[in-house]
Amino acid sequence: MPSTAKQIIQMTLLCSVVILSVAVGSVFGQTSNRPPTYSQPASPTQNPLLEEMTTHDKAFGIIVTAVAIGDSEKVHSAIETMRSSIEKTRTGVQAGTVTLPKNAPRFKDFLEMEQKFQNKLDALDRAALHHNQREMLRITNMLLSACVKCHQMFRK
Ligand code: HEC
């Protein structure tokens, strides 16, 4: 075999070894350098108020769409998820484990607003039960106003 051909084969072999070791190294390197999953930042679900708001956020989006297409069942199930999270916040505020970011001493007004909000949710649920789309629309508008009103008063 001419020496140039030998050199080419040698070079090719060397290259493959280098490429292979880099590839293997990066695979193992990646797995060992990945941060452990338990060091994730604390989730907002540890605060009942923020948990409630995350639920409201998702559920209200579902309600808006469900009202738009007249899907009473979806309206009803979204309301169910909101109810239980409201209850947790109310307990937390009363026990002093939840502090409001703004106007904190006015927690009685906050609880009153929560109650009014919940009454409107109950009314929406009744409208859904009767498949009354016009009424669902009217109450959904009122609920949005209630979100805004409470945020103006208690959200920073
Ligand atoms: C009775 C009061 C009240 C009502 C009603 C209310 N919220 Fe809130 N919401 C708050 C407070 C207080 C905060 C701030 C919480 C914090 O930062 O600790 C908040 C925060 C939020 C946040 C987080 C925003 C951020 O700071 O990133 C979202 C999203 C949210 N609310 C959605 C809603 C939606 C949607 C509705 C209505 C369907 C609603 N909320 C109704 C009191 C309320």
Describe the fold and architecture.
This protein has helices spanning about 5-35, 50-70, 70-95, 105-130, 135-155. It is mostly helical and about 160 residues long. The protein has a domain at about 45-155: Four Helix Bundle (Hemerythrin (Met), subunit A), CATH 1.20.120. The longest helix has about 30 residues, at about 5-35. Mean pLDDT is about 85; it is low at about 15-30 and about 35-40. The chain binds heme C (HEC). The site of heme C has 19 residues, from helix 2, helix 4 and helix 5.
What portion of the residues fall into strands of 2 or more residues? under 5%
Parts with pLDDT < 50 across at least 5 consecutive residues: 17-32, 35-42
CATH architectural label of the domain at 47-154:
Up-down Bundle
Residue-averaged pLDDT, rounded? 83
- CATH class of the domain at 47-154 reads Mainly Alpha
Under CATH, the topology of the domain at 47-154 can be stated as: Four Helix Bundle (Hemerythrin (Met), subunit A)
Distance between the termini: 81 Å
Bound molecules: heme C
Number of separate strands: 0
Count, helices: 5
Radius of gyration: 29 Å
For the sheet with most strands, the description reads: none
Q: What percent of residues adopt helix (DSSP H or I)?
A: over 70%
CATH superfamily grouping of the domain at 47-154: Cytochrome c/b562
Q: Helices and strands: which structural class?
A: mainly alpha
The shape is flat
Order of helices and strands: HHHHH
Q: What's the structural blueprint in terms of helices and strands?
A:
Layout: H1 3-33, H2 48-69, H3 72-95, H4 107-129, H5 133-154
Bound molecules: heme C.
